[in-house]
Design goal:
Strand content: under 5%
Radius of gyration: 25 Å
Number of helices: 9
Shape: elongated
Oligomer: single chain
Amino acid sequence: MDDSDRIPGDSADGVRPARARGRAKGAGTGARVGPLSPVWAAVPSVLGLVLAVPTAVEAFGTAADAREPGYLVPLLFYLALLAGGYSLGRLAQMSLAAARWDVVAQDGVPSRRVMGAHSMHATWVAGVGGSLLLMGALGMWSALDGGISGLEPGFSMIVAGAVTGLAGMALGRWTTDRWQQHVDHDERLQKKARERRLSDPLGRIREASRDSRQDSGPSS
């Protein structure tokens, strides 16, 4: 797993703010499975797989003339859980991490890449919800047509798909806004800290020296 799918609060140094990483360098962190671990996010998808296999065997093992309307609906629900369960769980974890983040205690914010990782999962969850909604619409069409496609009556999939899609988009938007609030807070804190340093004559000299080194860059 790369840093883009790590959650702030994991033990990995890659999700810590640069200032905090600098102070924590050399301090070992053992591997652990905490509440924000992707292991827990994978549980819904594993459950979907466990439920989908016997349901598929039963659905497709039934003779065509013995199939009843809606015989594919449970299977599609389990497949949706398999496809979107991990992303939904990961999105919930990332939203929780954003809600719990303390800019002062963590001495800053994670990288933009880490803070934006939830958008991929939000998009995927919305896509799975949209697929369910489409299958439900086809089921309603089939029911009105009088045929048996296995998707009838479709209403339950329309509701589930709409709720899932809207939840993914809303949670993704909320998480983005929450991280932006942390970024704004961090910028205000840095500005105040800089103003305090500049109020001291020695602080102004150190600040000017730091700015000079940053402008010159590393020597070749």
